[in-house]
Amino acid sequence: METRKEHWEKVYATKQPHEVSWTQELPKTSLDFLHSFNLSKSASIIDVGGGDSKLVDCLLDEGFENISVLDISEIAIERAKQRLGQKATKVKWIYSDVTECLDNFEGLTKVE
Question: pLDDT per residue over 95-110, tens digit each?
């Protein structure tokens, strides 16, 4: 049986962004949600399952400075890093399954 990681690696190895239903050129709903908090540009933001999402691009363009992207798929993250070029160095990239790494994040409570 295929693991979650194997599943998502296969998806990103075989599909382009325009071939999946969740890709948005402009992630307006997510941006509107974040903007509703009036966060400072130094606020910590983590995009869980962000992979190849363009949310990180938008946040960097808006001047946010403390962005993390967590995804189970190394392929998805590598795509995002390539797309961002030099700007990718401004992001903390976390290769992990969120269901297995919550214990590593201070201040988060894992609900069983």
Answer: 888 877 766 655 554 4
Q: At residue 74, what is the residue type?
A: E
The two structure tokens encoding residue 37? 């908090």
* pTM for this prediction: 0.84
| The length of the chain, given as a count of residues | 112
Can you tell me the distance from the alpha carbon of 19 to that of 11, in angstroms, rounded to the nearest whole number?
Answer: 10
Assign residue 106 a region: left if phi > 0, alpha if psi is -120 to 50, beta otherwise?
Answer: beta
Return the closest-CA partner of residue 56 out of 80, 29, 38: 80
Instruction: Give dist(CA 110, CA 30) in Å, integer.
Output: 23
Report the candidate in 82, 86, 79, 38 with the shortest Cα–Cα distance to residue 60: 86
Domain for residue 110, yes or no? no
45 domain-assigned? yes
| Structural domain range at position 33 | 4-104
Q: In DSSP terms, which residues pair with 67 in a beta bridge?
A: 45, 91
